[in-house]
Amino acid sequence: MSYPTSAFAAGLPWAGGAVLLVLAVTFVVARIAGKHSVIDTAWGLLFVAVAVATFVHSDGYGCTPRRWLLLVLPLLWGLRLAWHIGRRTVGKPEDPRYEKLLAKAKGNPDLYALRNVYLLQGVLAFLIAAPIHVGAYEAGPLGVVGWLGVAVWLLGVAFEAIGDAQLQRFRDDPANKGRIMDVGLWRYTRHPNYFGDACVWWGIFLVTASDWPGVLTIPAPILMTLLLTKGSGARILEAHMAGRPGWAEYAARTSGFFPLPPKRP
Question: Which of 14, 83, 89, 215 is the most exposed place for a label (fewest CB within 10 A)?
Fold first, then answer.
């Protein structure tokens, strides 16, 4: 069966509209809360919106198990991430990253944030969600590659959720104030949550890559991985942590991304 290109193309505006709706609501909430770091909570919700809109529009097309997976996998990941970030940041002031960014604004800082934060993240989410856009209309069976993708997604969610929970418990203990988190999953990688995030999107890609033309969406997980390692993820966080006592020793013995046994002194 040939790929329904017309239906796929017709579904893209629906997915884009869903992203814009989430961004608009987030911007209003941010204005009310007085901080633009609210967009961090909405990051996962952007993918939830794409998954729901694409699932609805692709009704009558594609492989049913794949369609459901491309709805459920982003939905569970996005809602968990939004809940975690929202719970962690509620009641706190503006994130220093956004304060530094908005200090560059010439003119209205809200419009500057809308253009350079909200719309930028919306475009990135829309591009990274390419496996969802494409895979929902693929008619071929999942096969081994598709189920391997589910396994990789499960690994990613586990790493991300466990790493976040371990870090939160560490921070909640007053005895750890000023210390570097180096236990649990954080003993094997400096960023278990980012590694898990990357696995989630490589897993979703594999679900789509099990049929043609899903393999062509490989730039999406590559882009997500680059964002996590070289973009706004690990690079900025490590620059922020570099001055803390014990960080240099921790970084020297601990893998930067892929989980590996700690290096001996």
Answer: 83
